[in-house]
Amino acid sequence: MEEILLGDLTELDENNSILEQWIDADTGIGSKLQRLVAILSSTRVTGGDLDDDSYQAEVVGEEAVGGQNPTPDQSITEELLQAMGIDSVDGELLRAVEKLERRDRQRWELDPESSEDYPEHFND
Fold it and tell me: Is the pTM of this model over 0.70?
């Protein structure tokens, strides 16, 4: 992952005496801000509803698909399925329960081959 510095995000230069010590320091705030911007600008979790609070949908889940406050008039089936991690093809029966169960049984992140350092451990 590329190192992100505070100066890169704020376009500050070394002449700013208040933040001078932080400009070239990797405080970790850059990656947190990038993640926050990605969450706030994404409609992935809310099923494409631009009016929903994406941050709350990601963190709390209330406005996410299947949450307690989903938008009642959403009829964008493909986007809603994608937000839940379900693939669909036009014209096929939905079978959401079957697909959710299959998705949950075949968790990619639980597969050892999905780890970044798998080749290192595999060769040992």
Answer: no
